[in-house]
Amino acid sequence: MKRILLLLICLLLSSMLSAEIRAVWATSWNLDTPAKIDELIEAMITNKQNTIMAEVRYRADALYTPNKQDKSYPNSDPKSYLLANKDFDALSYLLARSQFTDIRVHAWLPMIVATPTDMKKLDDNHIYYTHPEWFTCEENGKSMNPISGEGLFLDPGIPEVREYLRNVVKDIAVNYPQIAGIHLDYIRYPGIEYGYHPVSVTAWKRYSGTEEPITWTQWKKNQITGLVKSISDDLRKISASLELSTAVVADYNRAIGQFSQEWHQWLERDIVDYVYPMAYSTNTNNVESLLKDDFNIANKDRIVIGLRAFNNSGSTKFPVEKVEHNILETQKAGYAGVCLFSYGDLVKEYFPRLLISCYSVPPAKLEPIVRKSVQKEEPPVIAVNQVEPESIPPTEPDTLKSIVTAEFNPSPISVEDPVLEPETKVEPQEEPAAIALKEPVETPAVIEEPAVEASPAYEEPTVKIIKGEDFTINFQKLGNKYKVTVNTDVSCHIEWKITQSDNYPLYSKYRWYPKGETVEIWDGQLDNSEYITPGIYTLFAFSEVHRKSIILKIRLQ
After folding, report:
1. pLDDT tier at 544 (50, 70, 90 boundaries)?
2. What is the pLDDT of residues 119-149, one digit of tens each?
3. What DSSP string describes 135-147?
4. Lowest-confidence region among 123-127, 272-276, 403-407
5. What is the per-residue pLDDT across 291-335, written as a single tens digit (0 to 9) for each?
6. Sequential DSSP letters for 76-104
7. How many Cβ atoms sit within 10 Å of the Cβ of residue 306?
């Protein structure tokens, strides 16, 4: 009898351990043909995975069919330039192929980033051309450099931008009812220096003149949280079982301080169902620190850890041993699951080994969640002096047109303005240990925001720090930042990293670089969230297409 009881307990524990989210991020270029989707589905089944985050919207464009049948929510996104066959509906095909499996498909939607780095790839009907006045800028009115931010970002402080993004999400939700959820990505500002669109600045000034004034820092966070909250409410009206999740910056201090992304609140207030912190550090100690964070432990049943599974720079790949270690530590800590980035990189190659070491037990079928629904009718408009912390004050219909067409002389906030006084930094572990998800919570304190300085002009570096036969990298000090210029003769993935003299990795950047010159601005922040100090380091660069690496010692000031 005892042996039978013990066996039942073991089976129960095994079932509980296997009831995890086993996900991959599948990028747009892994979904652009039926053959690639067939391969993806087969790999997911073979390797005992149960969730696909499918990037069916790349840069304000569609790998699905906008306004497919139900045209209730206007969606102007054009078909993506990544599709050779513009008639191909990748989302429909993926849903059809996964219909009789236990694989759940989530629509992965990059939101506020709206262009690729190369504007020449865009058609005339893209939002970049139809609504150029919707894009964010710096305090001095200077527009973004698309290279430095992985594309140009919309400004969430503009009411029309928020409405446009909400309609895109609702259109997908109503026309593809088979999807398991919506996964929001790039739901943030591109950096602390952006967000100064005149429409947003004017709305903040008007709101700050009410009985409940707020700082500019908090205003920006409210624009992001307000957008997520609106999308959450929209989806609850459409379906009570449609999950809402977000990919977020893993370091919370950095998330709120640089990107206005207060994802702790999103969980505490039940705005989202899951968050996916992107733990892409090459150092497994950093991943373990994330798993041991007090807030994350308290909310681990709603946190899916996003883990790095893409190539390292140099002649070696990011080791499969580190991928294994991070997955096993996440499973042991009892988090909701793991999502690997990305299927098209090392995941395909590493799957057979991970199947043995991490995924030997078949996953339990994931059941749809049941969210608390909201009224179908729209809520009444809230007066300005009654706006909740995450809400956005109303803007007159002609505000956008009148402000944008007028000459913009920024200086919206002086350094001496009291609303920009530094605020107290509060570490995440000092927050309450247990908060009921349905209860309202206080707005968390934010980290100190330095005065915004105008970005220095881009200057052509005179010294090439790294030279390769087919691609080059220039590294130059630019004020308190570093300018990195990558020049390649073909479009390809390149990773560069900075290491100590003992080859210990401090920082790495992996991305798709278009043919020609690409300029990036690095603020000096390392993978461990500290900032680089003056000294001699090793700079590695590796090109996947050229299959070459270049290495040089550099002195950083």
Report:
1. low
2. 999 999 999 999 999 999 999 999 998 887 7
3. B-BBTTSPBPPTT
4. 403-407
5. 999 999 999 999 999 999 998 766 678 999 999 999 999 999 999
6. -PPBPTT-SSTT--HHHHHHHHTTTSS-E
7. 23
Q: Are 166 and 230 in contact (CB under 8 A)?
A: yes
- Tokens standing for residue 512: 């798709």
Judged against a pLDDT cut of 90, whether residue 260 lies above it is answered with yes
Residues linked to residue 185 through DSSP beta bridges, in sequence order: 110
pLDDT attached to residue 314: 63
Distances (CA, A) of 256 to 130, 154, 259, 289: 31, 18, 6, 19
Q: What percent of the chain has pLDDT over 70?
A: 76
The phi-psi region of residue 503 (left if phi > 0; otherwise alpha if psi is between -120 and 50; otherwise beta) is: left
**Tally of CB atoms within 10 A around 438:** 9
DSSP 8-class letter at 503: -
Q: What is the Cα–Cα distance from 307 to 324, expressed in whole angstroms? A: 10
Q: Do 20-357 and 466-556 show the same overall fold?
A: no
Amino acid at 140: N
Write down the pTM of the prediction: 0.69
Q: Is the preceding omega at residue 491 within 30 degrees of 0, hence cis?
A: no
Query: What does the DSSP assignment read for 266-323?
Result: HHHTTS-SEEEEEE--S-HHHHHHHHT-HHHHHTGGGBEEEEE-S--STTSPPPHHHH
CATH classification (class only), 466-556: mainly beta
Of the candidates 372, 248, 370, the one whose C-alpha atom is nearest the C-alpha of residue 304 is 248
**How would you classify residue 407: left for phi > 0, otherwise alpha for psi between -120 and 50, otherwise beta?**
beta
CATH classification for the domain delimited by 20-357, as one of 3.40.50.2000, 3.40.720.10, 3.20.20.80, 3.90.45.10 = 3.20.20.80
Q: What angle do CA 58, 245, 332 make, to 5 degrees?
A: 115
Nearest in space to 548 (alpha carbons), one of 468, 481, 473, 453: 468
- Model confidence at 74, pLDDT cuts 50, 70, 90, reads very high
Domain positions in the chain are 20-357, 466-556
Handedness of CA 431, 448, 536, 550 (dihedral sign): positive
Length of the chain equals 557
Q: Are 452 and 139 in contact (CB under 8 A)?
A: yes
Compute φ and ψ for 108, nearest 5 degrees.
Answer: -85, 120
